[in-house]
Write a structure and sequence with these properties.
It is a single chain. Helix 12 packs across helix 14, helix 15 packs across helix 16 and helix 15 packs across helix 17 (392-399). This protein has helices at 15-21, 40-46, 51-63, 69-79, 107-124, 138-147, 166-173, 188-199, 202-207, 218-239, 254-264, 281-288, 312-318, 323-329, 337-351, 357-371, 392-399, 407-414, 426-434, and strands spanning 3-5, 30-32, 86-90, 93-97, 129-134, 153-160, 179-184, 209-211, 245-249, 271-276, 330-334, 380-384, 420-422. A hairpin with a 2-residue loop joins strand 3 (86-90) and strand 4 (93-97). It is α/β, with parallel strands linked by helices and 438 residues long. Strands 3-4-12-9-10-11 form a 6-stranded mixed beta sheet, sandwiched between helices. The chain has a 5-stranded parallel beta sheet with strand order 8-5-6-7-13, with helices on both faces. It binds pyridoxal-5'-phosphate.
Length: 438
Protein backbone atom coordinates (compact mmCIF):
# COMPACT_ATOMS: atom_id res chain seq x y z
CA UNK A 1 0.00 0.00 0.00
CA UNK A 2 1.32 3.41 -1.03
CA UNK A 3 0.37 6.63 0.79
CA UNK A 4 0.23 10.03 -0.81
CA UNK A 5 -0.27 13.57 0.43
CA UNK A 6 -3.61 15.39 0.29
CA UNK A 7 -1.65 18.30 -1.26
CA UNK A 8 -0.39 15.96 -4.00
CA UNK A 9 2.97 17.74 -4.25
CA UNK A 10 5.09 15.18 -2.33
CA UNK A 11 6.39 11.82 -3.51
CA UNK A 12 4.15 8.88 -2.50
CA UNK A 13 5.69 6.83 0.32
CA UNK A 14 5.43 3.53 2.19
CA UNK A 15 3.58 3.22 5.51
CA UNK A 16 7.00 3.19 7.18
CA UNK A 17 7.86 6.62 5.82
CA UNK A 18 4.38 7.99 6.43
CA UNK A 19 4.57 6.78 10.05
CA UNK A 20 8.02 8.15 10.78
CA UNK A 21 7.40 11.43 8.93
CA UNK A 22 3.91 12.26 10.19
CA UNK A 23 3.23 15.29 8.02
CA UNK A 24 4.12 15.11 4.30
CA UNK A 25 6.89 17.50 3.15
CA UNK A 26 4.33 19.54 1.14
CA UNK A 27 2.35 20.18 4.34
CA UNK A 28 -0.42 17.74 3.40
CA UNK A 29 -1.68 14.67 5.26
CA UNK A 30 -0.96 11.12 4.12
CA UNK A 31 -3.85 8.99 2.86
CA UNK A 32 -3.89 5.55 1.20
CA UNK A 33 -3.49 5.81 -2.59
CA UNK A 34 -6.39 3.42 -2.92
CA UNK A 35 -8.77 2.67 -0.04
CA UNK A 36 -8.58 -1.05 0.85
CA UNK A 37 -11.87 -2.86 0.39
CA UNK A 38 -13.61 -5.80 2.03
CA UNK A 39 -16.07 -7.76 -0.10
CA UNK A 40 -19.43 -8.71 1.40
CA UNK A 41 -18.19 -12.28 1.73
CA UNK A 42 -15.10 -11.11 3.64
CA UNK A 43 -17.26 -9.01 5.97
CA UNK A 44 -19.59 -11.96 6.55
CA UNK A 45 -16.63 -14.06 7.65
CA UNK A 46 -15.73 -11.46 10.27
CA UNK A 47 -19.18 -11.44 11.92
CA UNK A 48 -18.74 -12.74 15.45
CA UNK A 49 -14.95 -12.31 15.30
CA UNK A 50 -13.05 -10.89 18.29
CA UNK A 51 -11.87 -7.28 18.37
CA UNK A 52 -8.29 -8.44 17.69
CA UNK A 53 -9.31 -10.51 14.70
CA UNK A 54 -11.26 -7.66 13.12
CA UNK A 55 -8.34 -5.31 13.83
CA UNK A 56 -5.85 -7.73 12.28
CA UNK A 57 -7.94 -8.14 9.12
CA UNK A 58 -8.06 -4.37 8.62
CA UNK A 59 -4.41 -3.77 9.55
CA UNK A 60 -3.30 -6.40 7.02
CA UNK A 61 -4.98 -4.45 4.22
CA UNK A 62 -3.43 -1.13 5.24
CA UNK A 63 0.02 -2.32 6.31
CA UNK A 64 0.41 -5.89 5.03
CA UNK A 65 3.53 -6.45 3.01
CA UNK A 66 5.61 -4.21 5.23
CA UNK A 67 5.29 -6.07 8.51
CA UNK A 68 5.18 -9.89 8.54
CA UNK A 69 1.68 -11.14 9.51
CA UNK A 70 2.85 -12.92 12.69
CA UNK A 71 4.51 -9.78 13.91
CA UNK A 72 1.55 -7.57 13.00
CA UNK A 73 -0.72 -9.92 14.88
CA UNK A 74 1.55 -9.70 17.98
CA UNK A 75 1.50 -5.89 17.71
CA UNK A 76 -2.30 -5.91 17.67
CA UNK A 77 -2.59 -8.28 20.61
CA UNK A 78 -0.27 -6.18 22.73
CA UNK A 79 -2.03 -2.91 21.77
CA UNK A 80 -5.55 -4.00 22.58
CA UNK A 81 -5.17 -6.02 25.75
CA UNK A 82 -8.11 -4.12 27.28
CA UNK A 83 -11.86 -4.35 26.65
CA UNK A 84 -14.00 -2.27 24.27
CA UNK A 85 -17.47 -2.55 25.89
CA UNK A 86 -20.62 -1.78 23.92
CA UNK A 87 -23.19 -0.77 26.56
CA UNK A 88 -26.90 -0.76 25.69
CA UNK A 89 -28.87 2.18 27.14
CA UNK A 90 -32.20 1.43 25.45
CA UNK A 91 -33.57 -0.59 22.54
CA UNK A 92 -31.62 1.33 19.89
CA UNK A 93 -29.06 3.38 21.79
CA UNK A 94 -25.57 2.18 22.68
CA UNK A 95 -22.41 3.64 24.15
CA UNK A 96 -19.08 2.27 22.92
CA UNK A 97 -16.69 2.77 25.82
CA UNK A 98 -13.29 3.65 24.40
CA UNK A 99 -11.80 4.62 27.77
CA UNK A 100 -10.56 1.28 29.08
CA UNK A 101 -6.91 1.81 28.12
CA UNK A 102 -4.15 3.03 30.45
CA UNK A 103 -4.95 6.76 30.27
CA UNK A 104 -8.77 6.37 30.30
CA UNK A 105 -9.35 8.09 26.96
CA UNK A 106 -9.75 6.85 23.38
CA UNK A 107 -6.40 8.35 22.35
CA UNK A 108 -4.81 5.19 23.76
CA UNK A 109 -5.97 3.25 20.66
CA UNK A 110 -4.04 5.48 18.28
CA UNK A 111 -1.01 6.14 20.48
CA UNK A 112 -0.36 2.50 21.39
CA UNK A 113 -0.50 1.36 17.77
CA UNK A 114 1.66 4.23 16.53
CA UNK A 115 4.22 3.48 19.26
CA UNK A 116 4.55 -0.18 18.32
CA UNK A 117 4.79 0.56 14.60
CA UNK A 118 7.43 3.20 15.26
CA UNK A 119 9.37 0.76 17.44
CA UNK A 120 9.19 -1.92 14.73
CA UNK A 121 10.44 0.39 11.97
CA UNK A 122 13.15 1.88 14.21
CA UNK A 123 14.47 -1.57 15.00
CA UNK A 124 14.47 -2.46 11.30
CA UNK A 125 16.78 0.51 10.70
CA UNK A 126 18.73 -0.09 13.90
CA UNK A 127 17.96 3.45 15.04
CA UNK A 128 16.82 5.22 18.17
CA UNK A 129 13.79 7.41 17.45
CA UNK A 130 13.07 10.39 19.68
CA UNK A 131 9.42 11.41 19.81
CA UNK A 132 9.12 15.07 20.68
CA UNK A 133 5.71 16.42 21.79
CA UNK A 134 4.35 19.60 23.24
CA UNK A 135 1.21 18.87 25.22
CA UNK A 136 -1.45 20.65 27.19
CA UNK A 137 -2.68 17.32 28.58
CA UNK A 138 -4.45 14.41 26.90
CA UNK A 139 -2.35 13.73 23.83
CA UNK A 140 0.85 13.78 25.87
CA UNK A 141 -0.35 11.22 28.37
CA UNK A 142 -1.56 8.80 25.68
CA UNK A 143 1.81 9.18 23.92
CA UNK A 144 3.75 8.75 27.19
CA UNK A 145 1.95 5.52 28.08
CA UNK A 146 1.85 4.35 24.46
CA UNK A 147 5.64 4.48 24.02
CA UNK A 148 6.51 3.44 27.57
CA UNK A 149 8.92 0.49 27.37
CA UNK A 150 8.93 0.31 23.54
CA UNK A 151 12.49 -0.55 22.41
CA UNK A 152 14.33 1.79 20.04
CA UNK A 153 12.10 4.71 21.01
CA UNK A 154 12.04 7.39 23.65
CA UNK A 155 9.66 10.27 24.32
CA UNK A 156 10.49 13.81 25.36
CA UNK A 157 7.36 15.74 26.25
CA UNK A 158 7.08 19.40 27.10
CA UNK A 159 4.22 20.70 29.21
CA UNK A 160 3.54 24.16 30.65
CA UNK A 161 4.32 24.37 34.36
CA UNK A 162 1.24 24.97 36.52
CA UNK A 163 -1.11 24.88 33.54
CA UNK A 164 -2.25 21.26 33.53
CA UNK A 165 -4.45 19.55 36.14
CA UNK A 166 -2.83 17.46 38.89
CA UNK A 167 -4.19 14.29 37.33
CA UNK A 168 -2.82 15.25 33.92
CA UNK A 169 0.55 16.12 35.41
CA UNK A 170 0.72 12.71 37.12
CA UNK A 171 -0.06 11.05 33.80
CA UNK A 172 2.67 13.04 32.07
CA UNK A 173 5.39 12.61 34.66
CA UNK A 174 5.13 9.09 36.05
CA UNK A 175 5.57 6.80 33.01
CA UNK A 176 9.35 6.74 33.62
CA UNK A 177 11.92 4.62 31.74
CA UNK A 178 12.15 5.88 28.16
CA UNK A 179 9.65 8.70 28.78
CA UNK A 180 11.12 12.05 29.80
CA UNK A 181 8.94 14.94 30.98
CA UNK A 182 10.12 18.53 30.69
CA UNK A 183 8.23 21.04 32.80
CA UNK A 184 8.54 24.35 30.96
CA UNK A 185 8.39 27.69 32.76
CA UNK A 186 5.99 29.15 30.22
CA UNK A 187 2.68 28.42 28.52
CA UNK A 188 1.57 25.88 25.94
CA UNK A 189 2.48 28.18 23.05
CA UNK A 190 6.06 28.35 24.36
CA UNK A 191 6.19 24.55 24.44
CA UNK A 192 4.93 24.38 20.87
CA UNK A 193 7.35 27.02 19.64
CA UNK A 194 10.31 25.19 21.21
CA UNK A 195 9.28 21.87 19.66
CA UNK A 196 8.85 23.45 16.22
CA UNK A 197 12.28 25.02 16.48
CA UNK A 198 13.84 21.67 17.40
CA UNK A 199 12.42 20.07 14.24
CA UNK A 200 14.19 22.63 12.04
CA UNK A 201 17.47 22.85 13.99
CA UNK A 202 20.06 21.30 11.61
CA UNK A 203 22.67 20.71 14.30
CA UNK A 204 20.26 18.82 16.51
CA UNK A 205 18.82 16.79 13.63
CA UNK A 206 22.31 15.71 12.57
CA UNK A 207 22.57 13.73 15.79
CA UNK A 208 19.01 12.70 16.62
CA UNK A 209 16.13 11.20 14.63
CA UNK A 210 13.16 13.24 15.75
CA UNK A 211 9.53 12.49 15.08
CA UNK A 212 6.23 13.89 16.29
CA UNK A 213 3.24 11.83 17.38
CA UNK A 214 0.30 14.11 16.78
CA UNK A 215 -3.07 13.11 15.42
CA UNK A 216 -2.23 13.86 11.80
CA UNK A 217 -0.13 10.66 11.72
CA UNK A 218 -1.89 8.07 9.54
CA UNK A 219 -0.79 5.33 11.94
CA UNK A 220 -2.90 6.90 14.67
CA UNK A 221 -5.97 6.85 12.43
CA UNK A 222 -5.80 3.28 11.13
CA UNK A 223 -6.28 1.70 14.60
CA UNK A 224 -9.19 4.05 15.31
CA UNK A 225 -11.10 2.53 12.39
CA UNK A 226 -10.98 -0.85 14.18
CA UNK A 227 -13.58 0.01 16.82
CA UNK A 228 -16.09 1.32 14.28
CA UNK A 229 -15.73 -1.82 12.17
CA UNK A 230 -15.87 -4.15 15.16
CA UNK A 231 -18.94 -2.45 16.69
CA UNK A 232 -20.85 -2.51 13.38
CA UNK A 233 -20.39 -6.31 13.25
CA UNK A 234 -20.88 -6.96 16.96
CA UNK A 235 -24.17 -5.05 16.94
CA UNK A 236 -25.48 -7.35 14.25
CA UNK A 237 -24.13 -10.51 15.82
CA UNK A 238 -25.32 -9.82 19.38
CA UNK A 239 -28.43 -7.68 18.88
CA UNK A 240 -29.53 -8.32 15.29
CA UNK A 241 -29.24 -4.59 14.50
CA UNK A 242 -27.46 -3.24 11.44
CA UNK A 243 -26.13 -0.08 9.82
CA UNK A 244 -25.68 2.04 12.95
CA UNK A 245 -25.31 5.79 13.04
CA UNK A 246 -22.18 6.72 14.99
CA UNK A 247 -22.18 9.94 16.99
CA UNK A 248 -18.58 11.13 17.34
CA UNK A 249 -17.50 13.83 19.84
CA UNK A 250 -15.06 15.77 17.66
CA UNK A 251 -12.17 18.22 18.06
CA UNK A 252 -9.47 17.68 15.43
CA UNK A 253 -11.78 15.26 13.56
CA UNK A 254 -9.24 12.41 13.55
CA UNK A 255 -11.73 10.09 15.19
CA UNK A 256 -14.46 10.87 12.68
CA UNK A 257 -12.02 10.50 9.76
CA UNK A 258 -11.16 7.01 11.00
CA UNK A 259 -14.88 6.17 11.02
CA UNK A 260 -15.25 7.35 7.44
CA UNK A 261 -12.30 5.12 6.50
CA UNK A 262 -14.04 2.12 8.12
CA UNK A 263 -17.18 2.83 6.08
CA UNK A 264 -15.17 3.30 2.87
CA UNK A 265 -13.49 -0.08 3.37
CA UNK A 266 -16.93 -1.70 3.29
CA UNK A 267 -18.07 -2.10 6.92
CA UNK A 268 -21.86 -1.78 7.39
CA UNK A 269 -22.12 1.73 8.85
CA UNK A 270 -25.23 3.82 8.20
CA UNK A 271 -24.31 7.40 8.99
CA UNK A 272 -22.15 9.70 11.15
CA UNK A 273 -22.94 12.60 13.41
CA UNK A 274 -20.08 15.06 13.84
CA UNK A 275 -20.83 16.23 17.38
CA UNK A 276 -19.00 19.41 18.29
CA UNK A 277 -19.14 21.89 21.15
CA UNK A 278 -19.22 25.65 20.46
CA UNK A 279 -16.22 25.17 18.16
CA UNK A 280 -18.39 24.58 15.11
CA UNK A 281 -16.20 25.26 12.03
CA UNK A 282 -17.09 21.91 10.45
CA UNK A 283 -20.80 22.15 11.30
CA UNK A 284 -20.95 25.52 9.55
CA UNK A 285 -19.05 24.11 6.55
CA UNK A 286 -21.63 21.33 6.24
CA UNK A 287 -24.39 23.96 6.22
CA UNK A 288 -23.12 26.18 3.43
CA UNK A 289 -19.83 24.81 2.05
CA UNK A 290 -17.75 27.69 3.39
CA UNK A 291 -14.82 26.83 5.61
CA UNK A 292 -14.25 29.78 7.84
CA UNK A 293 -12.52 28.65 11.05
CA UNK A 294 -13.03 30.84 14.13
CA UNK A 295 -10.61 31.27 17.05
CA UNK A 296 -10.85 28.52 19.65
CA UNK A 297 -13.56 28.84 22.33
CA UNK A 298 -13.08 27.29 25.78
CA UNK A 299 -15.85 24.87 26.82
CA UNK A 300 -16.58 22.07 29.32
CA UNK A 301 -15.47 19.50 26.74
CA UNK A 302 -11.92 20.86 26.66
CA UNK A 303 -10.35 18.12 24.52
CA UNK A 304 -12.68 19.24 21.71
CA UNK A 305 -11.76 22.92 21.90
CA UNK A 306 -10.27 23.22 18.43
CA UNK A 307 -11.02 26.15 16.13
CA UNK A 308 -9.25 24.84 13.03
CA UNK A 309 -9.29 21.02 13.05
CA UNK A 310 -6.13 19.37 11.70
CA UNK A 311 -7.84 16.36 10.15
CA UNK A 312 -10.42 18.35 8.22
CA UNK A 313 -8.13 18.30 5.14
CA UNK A 314 -8.45 14.51 4.98
CA UNK A 315 -12.23 14.54 5.36
CA UNK A 316 -12.55 17.12 2.63
CA UNK A 317 -10.31 15.12 0.36
CA UNK A 318 -12.37 11.96 0.86
CA UNK A 319 -15.53 13.77 -0.24
CA UNK A 320 -13.92 15.50 -3.23
CA UNK A 321 -14.16 18.91 -1.58
CA UNK A 322 -17.95 18.75 -1.87
CA UNK A 323 -19.91 19.64 1.26
CA UNK A 324 -23.14 18.21 -0.20
CA UNK A 325 -21.47 14.82 -0.70
CA UNK A 326 -20.02 15.02 2.83
CA UNK A 327 -23.45 15.97 4.18
CA UNK A 328 -24.99 12.78 2.76
CA UNK A 329 -22.88 10.75 5.18
CA UNK A 330 -22.14 13.21 8.00
CA UNK A 331 -24.53 15.46 9.91
CA UNK A 332 -22.91 18.24 11.94
CA UNK A 333 -24.48 19.20 15.28
CA UNK A 334 -23.05 21.72 17.72
CA UNK A 335 -23.94 21.36 21.42
CA UNK A 336 -23.71 24.13 24.04
CA UNK A 337 -22.18 23.88 27.52
CA UNK A 338 -25.66 24.17 29.09
CA UNK A 339 -26.92 21.26 27.01
CA UNK A 340 -23.81 19.26 27.93
CA UNK A 341 -24.49 19.67 31.65
CA UNK A 342 -28.22 18.97 31.34
CA UNK A 343 -27.42 15.84 29.30
CA UNK A 344 -25.04 14.48 31.97
CA UNK A 345 -27.92 14.92 34.43
CA UNK A 346 -30.72 13.52 32.27
CA UNK A 347 -28.71 10.49 31.12
CA UNK A 348 -27.98 9.68 34.76
CA UNK A 349 -31.65 10.11 35.74
CA UNK A 350 -32.96 8.01 32.88
CA UNK A 351 -30.37 5.24 32.65
CA UNK A 352 -28.26 5.47 35.82
CA UNK A 353 -25.27 5.94 33.48
CA UNK A 354 -22.50 8.48 34.13
CA UNK A 355 -21.10 10.20 31.03
CA UNK A 356 -18.11 12.50 30.82
CA UNK A 357 -18.73 15.91 29.15
CA UNK A 358 -17.28 14.82 25.75
CA UNK A 359 -19.50 11.76 25.56
CA UNK A 360 -22.47 13.89 26.65
CA UNK A 361 -21.94 16.12 23.61
CA UNK A 362 -22.14 13.02 21.42
CA UNK A 363 -25.25 11.75 23.16
CA UNK A 364 -27.06 15.08 22.91
CA UNK A 365 -26.21 15.41 19.22
CA UNK A 366 -27.73 11.98 18.53
CA UNK A 367 -30.87 12.88 20.48
CA UNK A 368 -31.26 16.18 18.69
CA UNK A 369 -30.98 14.58 15.28
CA UNK A 370 -33.54 11.94 16.29
CA UNK A 371 -35.89 14.64 17.57
CA UNK A 372 -35.57 16.35 14.17
CA UNK A 373 -36.89 13.16 12.60
CA UNK A 374 -33.63 11.63 11.37
CA UNK A 375 -32.25 8.21 12.27
CA UNK A 376 -34.88 7.36 14.84
CA UNK A 377 -35.31 3.87 13.40
CA UNK A 378 -31.57 3.33 13.09
CA UNK A 379 -29.47 1.96 15.94
CA UNK A 380 -27.25 4.71 17.36
CA UNK A 381 -23.79 4.26 18.86
CA UNK A 382 -22.32 7.14 20.86
CA UNK A 383 -18.54 6.92 21.12
CA UNK A 384 -17.47 7.51 24.70
CA UNK A 385 -14.08 9.16 24.40
CA UNK A 386 -13.15 9.54 28.09
CA UNK A 387 -13.88 8.01 31.50
CA UNK A 388 -15.99 10.32 33.72
CA UNK A 389 -13.38 10.16 36.49
CA UNK A 390 -11.09 12.26 34.28
CA UNK A 391 -13.56 15.13 34.65
CA UNK A 392 -14.55 14.45 38.21
CA UNK A 393 -15.17 18.09 39.20
CA UNK A 394 -17.83 18.72 36.55
CA UNK A 395 -19.50 15.37 37.17
CA UNK A 396 -19.63 15.77 40.95
CA UNK A 397 -20.91 19.33 40.64
CA UNK A 398 -23.61 18.24 38.22
CA UNK A 399 -24.76 15.01 39.83
CA UNK A 400 -24.01 15.87 43.50
CA UNK A 401 -22.61 12.40 43.76
CA UNK A 402 -19.16 10.81 44.22
CA UNK A 403 -17.59 9.26 41.15
CA UNK A 404 -15.75 5.98 41.65
CA UNK A 405 -12.17 6.43 40.50
CA UNK A 406 -10.72 3.38 38.73
CA UNK A 407 -7.80 1.68 40.44
CA UNK A 408 -5.32 2.42 37.64
CA UNK A 409 -5.99 6.11 38.07
CA UNK A 410 -5.71 6.03 41.86
CA UNK A 411 -2.38 4.22 41.75
CA UNK A 412 -1.10 6.88 39.38
CA UNK A 413 -1.90 9.62 41.87
CA UNK A 414 0.39 7.97 44.41
CA UNK A 415 3.41 7.76 42.11
CA UNK A 416 6.32 10.15 42.41
CA UNK A 417 6.44 12.92 39.81
CA UNK A 418 9.62 12.96 37.73
CA UNK A 419 10.18 16.01 35.57
CA UNK A 420 13.05 18.29 34.57
CA UNK A 421 12.30 21.96 34.99
CA UNK A 422 13.54 24.09 32.07
CA UNK A 423 13.06 27.69 30.95
CA UNK A 424 11.15 28.66 27.82
CA UNK A 425 14.42 29.48 26.04
CA UNK A 426 15.00 27.10 23.11
CA UNK A 427 18.66 26.64 24.09
CA UNK A 428 17.55 24.84 27.25
CA UNK A 429 15.63 22.30 25.20
CA UNK A 430 18.49 21.88 22.71
CA UNK A 431 21.02 21.22 25.43
CA UNK A 432 18.70 18.73 27.13
CA UNK A 433 18.22 16.84 23.86
CA UNK A 434 21.94 16.92 23.10
CA UNK A 435 22.66 15.37 26.48
CA UNK A 436 20.63 12.24 25.64
CA UNK A 437 22.63 9.20 24.42
CA UNK A 438 22.63 8.95 20.67
C1 LIG B 1 -9.04 14.22 21.65
C2 LIG B 1 -10.38 14.03 22.23
C3 LIG B 1 -11.57 14.23 21.48
C4 LIG B 1 -11.55 14.73 20.05
O1 LIG B 1 -11.07 13.77 19.13
P1 LIG B 1 -10.59 14.20 17.68
O2 LIG B 1 -10.07 12.96 17.04
O3 LIG B 1 -9.54 15.26 17.87
O4 LIG B 1 -11.79 14.75 16.97
C5 LIG B 1 -12.78 13.98 22.08
N1 LIG B 1 -12.86 13.58 23.38
C6 LIG B 1 -11.76 13.39 24.13
C7 LIG B 1 -11.92 12.97 25.55
C8 LIG B 1 -10.48 13.59 23.59
O5 LIG B 1 -9.39 13.40 24.36
Amino acid sequence: MIYFSTNKASVPVSIKHATLQGLAPDGGLYIPSEMPHFSEAEIKLLEGASFSNVAFAIAKKFIGGEIPPDHLSDIIDSCFDFETPLVRLDEKTFVEELFCGPTLAFKDYGARFLARLTGYFAEEDNKMITVLVATSGDTGSAVAFGFQGIANTRVVLLYPSGKVSRLQEQQLTTAGGNVHALEVKGDFDDCQRMVKQAFVDPELNAGLTLTSANSINISRLIPQSFYYAWASLYLKDQFGLSNPVFSVPSGNYGNLTAGVMAKMTGFPIGHFIAASNANDSVTRYLDDGRYDPHPTITTHSTAMDVGNPSNFARLRYFYGNDHIAMGREITGISVSDEETISTIRSVFDRFGYIMDPHTAVGFRALERSRAAGSYHDMPGIVLSTAHPAKFIDIIEDTLKKDVVIPERLLSLLEKEKEATLISSDYRDLASYLNSLDQ
